[in-house]
Write a structure and sequence with these properties.
Layout (H helix, E strand, L loop, with lengths): L2 H9 L8 H16 L2 H18 L6 E5 L5 H7 L4 E6 L2 H14 L4 E5 L7 H4 L5 E7 L7 H10 E15 H10 L5 H17 L5 E14 H12 L7 H14 L4 E16 L1
Parallel strand pairs: 1-2, 1-4, 2-3, 4-5
Antiparallel strand pairs: 5-7, 6-7
Helix pairs in contact: 1-9, 2-5, 3-4, 8-11, 10-11
Length: 273
Amino acid sequence: MDITEFEALWAERQPDRQDSAAFWSQRAKSFDTHSGKADSSAHRRRLVVETAEKAGVGKQDAVLDIGCGPGRHALEFAALASCVEACDIAPGMVERARENAARAGVENAHFRVLDWAGADLARLGWERKFRLVFASRTPAIYDRPTLEKMTAASCGCCCLITHVAGENSVRTALAPIMGGGRDPEMLRRGLFSAFGILWLEGYCPEVTYLNREWQSECPLDEAVLMYSRQFGSGKPLAPDQEAALAAGLRKLSHNGMVREQGSSKVAVLFWKV
């Protein structure tokens, strides 16, 4: 395959980004609560330390976190680097990140609302600036230009973490109602395409895999929003599908909350610039 074929393959699974900012802002509170739990914090701390060591990040270096969400990774990197710049398309996520930084007394992590696809690295002063450019399970990296912009911002290394497989109790329960679940092959295309593009551009990307089991919960209305997006592949469901989904989630809810448990496999894609 050549680069254009990898680009075309990746394009088939690109998310609908029209409502990304509103969607993730609405999810900011519960997402932050889940990521702040002790097991998630311990897992994230190990990942950050290992990634920083691999990239050679020291107290004199800068780190960029793309799609930073509520800032949990950025705050861990801030303890190891001179400064961290972090961005997210969702104002609600950035607000939570700033609150978390203030609560932790972290002053060398800076958060901004920014759509990575439209980021002007020259204007931002981010060309070849960062020892490590990091992006974890974010829809901000979804095609060749957004991937190559990671490399353009780095003077050292890049790390892209992407979801490749997993089970979810709620999604499994809803699948018969909604006519099936997500296509596993489609889920893996981002990793396959990113690796192929980097390889053909002359890099030697490394891939490792991490497995986790988890539990979380969110309010019923947020669950409807989240699973409508998942089963609709980012596009609106038909009215009858939306009604069936909402009814299914109400049956699964308890005291207005939808609890889910599952397992996930993520790929850690790492390359030197």
